[in-house]
Fold this protein.
Amino acid sequence: MPKVELHVHLEGSIRPETLLMLARRNGVTLPYDDVVGLRQWYQFVDFPHFVDIYVAITKCLRTADDIELICREFLQQQAAQNIIHSEVTYTAFTIFKHCHISFADQLVALNRARAWAAQTLGVTMALVIDIAREESPADGLITAEWAAKALGHGVDAIGLGGYEVGHPPEKHQAGFDLARAAGLPSVPHAGETEGPASMWGAIHALGAQRLGHGVRCLEDPALVAYLRQQQIPLEVCPSSNVCLNVVKTLAEHPLPRLIAEGLYVTLNSDDPPLFNTTLNEEYIKCAAAFHFDASVMEQFSLNALRASLLPAPQKLALEQRFLHDFRQLRHKYAVV
């Protein structure tokens, strides 16, 4: 199937093999010195443990060429899955803080990879520059200023990620106000490790156009009603939710309930190698776990395309392409 992915982190998409190569090349010591050990290290205990791993991965990026490398590899992985367009979360300030690579140099490297992928692989990427919740509001403003200046140069939105507990969306309202005033859409994470209050904060304080995760909205019927009425897209990441103990098993995931409530749902991989998944596997796992048929799978794909930040004419052209491909696939596999 042709697909669009809206919730995937570039730094969290680094393959263990590449991470090990970068660590050795840049003289960075990791807890393990082989791929098998790194995969064991990825077995998360809780969300703070996940953040520790994420920062350790980031510290292996020491040059702009490293950033271009991981971006090219990521886009190759997306193309291999027939993911035509990706809106990729990227935490530029964390890389600046730990690796001392200027945002300007980071952006040049990312745009080189984007241009290469568009020409060579036929896939596109837009950047969601992410404010880490743990950072101070002042540092959040710096990220917002960077993102605002890069609008139209590979950056299409402002995001908010990291550990929700103790870091409500309101903490970074000033940064989001600045970015939104410059024309950047707001696509924060909310409703993953915190409940409805975090989602309401993202909506009211940050003007969220889409919500990363959002699975805990079901704890508040008023929020569910609001999301249904406004059709605010949810970027649902089932395997991530299981790995980070938001839910215990995939079978217990609220995805079918979200759909039954009439909410706008998309499927995403979040940090693929860290959660031992891919977007293709998310589609396959969910189809098997919840007995979704081809029409549900097609709807996930179309929902992501329609909720993307692509220009309207490009969305329309891609939708026609997707619908054509769906018809071809149904005919090929005799799906009624």
Residues 312-332 form the longest helix (21 residues). The chain has a mean pLDDT of 96. Residues 136 and 172 are 8 Å apart (CA to CA). The chain has 15 helices and eight strands.
